[in-house]
Design goal:
Length: 331
């Protein structure tokens, strides 16, 4: 019997209009535009402005673009999985809210929190529902309004992150395209280096937590960098070996966009030249769960049917992962 795989049949994204440049950040916090660009690769990032707008609003636009592209309606969708660390609310899930906003009344879904690895974890999860035959159309969306949890007086975090959303549609195929393999991992001891201190059940919101700025991203940059630079390279090389792929076989690396130096180290370890590496960190910064689908959206026209592509990530948790996809269509 021919194996059913989950094929990515469309991709779309959304980034807010407002551009926060390095030069603009210099006016807000003690930093240096050149330092940011040379140490991270980031020149600017997008920020979602507007009262009452949250992660779901960006995801909804990305999903509506996705449906239009594929020529299907919200009623055709079976499931929506949302990867995010900045859900609209603690509960109910942002997936729930999105289903309501777009009128996906035949769908169900849930949120998945794996920080910068969220999209990779969600894509692997969505794939299972297609492979088993349980669902025919699954949307996996990575969306984060990072500006809602950033302290714009903390230069170690506010310079890195931006807002955005990216979505893919998964459908079954038996022609050998789609998600072929994935490797995922976690190491919870890494939580010490990157987390949000309050707002959860251990430390619910209080005047004290707000005064102590504990609802913002806390990051020990160097400790995370050291693990990420090795971790992302290792998992990317591992999935190549596991699937007997040489550097020549790989058409594209789609790396999480956290720091250009981490991306460069990963490409080097895989033996890939920079022309095969998707990069948009310079214009969007680190959009957490949205980086990988936003890269696919930006580079979609350059992708060809049959291309072997490796998606890879490392992030808070620690969490990490890589996915091997055989691209399913020409644009
Ligand atoms: O996606 C989630 C996972 N997150 C990551 O993968 C992030 C990984 N970490 C990083 O990307 C980097 O660690 C950062 C970009 C956050 C920081 O870069 P770094 O090269 O690790 O800087 P550092 O913290 O080691 O600081 C080096 C120097 C220090 O000055 P001195 O002590 O050498 O004089 C810092 O005070 O750079 C200074 N510095 C800055 N200067 C201007 C740190 N941040 C800034 C800044 N602007 N924003």
């Amino acid at each position: 019997m021919t194996k059913t795989t989950a094929s990515i049949t469309a991709v779309a994204g959304y980034v807010p209009d407002y551009i926060l440049s390095n030069e603009e950040l210099v006016k807000m916090v003690s930093t240096d535009a050149n330092w940011i660009e040379t140490r991270t690769g980031i020149k600017e990032r997008r920020i979602l402005k507007g009262e009452g707008l949250g992660t779901s609003d960006m995801a909804v636009i990305a999903i509506e673009r996705l449906l239009k592209k594929r020529g299907i309606t919200p009623l055709d969708i079976d499931m929506i999985i949302v990867a995010s660390v900045t859900p609209d609310l603690i509960f109910p899930s942002t997936s729930n809210i999105i289903c309501d906003k777009i009128g996906a009344t035949n769908a169900w879904g849930f949120d998945l929190a794996a920080a910068c690895s969220g999209f990779i974890f969600a894509l692997t999860t969505g794939t299972q529902f297609i492979e088993t035959g349980k669902c025919k159309k699954v949307i996996v969306v990575g969306a984060d309004k990072m500006s809602s949890i950033l302290d714009y007086t903390d230069r170690s975090t506010c310079i890195i992150f931006g807002d955005g959303a990216g979505a893919v549609l998964l459908e079954p195929t038996t022609d050998g395209h789609g998600v072929i393999d994935s490797i995922l991992g976690v190491d919870g001891s890494g939580r010490a280096h990157l987390h949000q201190k309050a707002g959860g059940s251990v430390k619910p919101p209080s005047h004290a937590t707000i005064d102590a700025k504990e609802h913002f991203v806390y990051q020990e940059g160097q400790a995370v960098f050291k693990r990420a630079v090795v971790g992302m390279a290792e998992v990317s090389a591992e999935i190549m070996v596991k699937n007997k792929l040489t550097a020549d076989d790989v058409a594209w690396l789609v790396p999480h966009q956290a720091n250009k130096r981490i991306i460069d180290a990963t490409a080097e370890r895989m033996g890939l030249s920079s022309e095969k590496v998707m990069l948009n960190i310079q214009k969007y910064g680190n959009t957490t769960a949205a980086t990988i689908p936003l890269c696919l959206w930006d580079y979609e026209k350059q992708l060809k049917k049959g291309d072997n592509i490796i998606l890879s990530t490392f992030g808070a948790g620690f969490t990490w992962g890589a996915i091997y996809v055989k691209w399913a269509y020409n644009s």
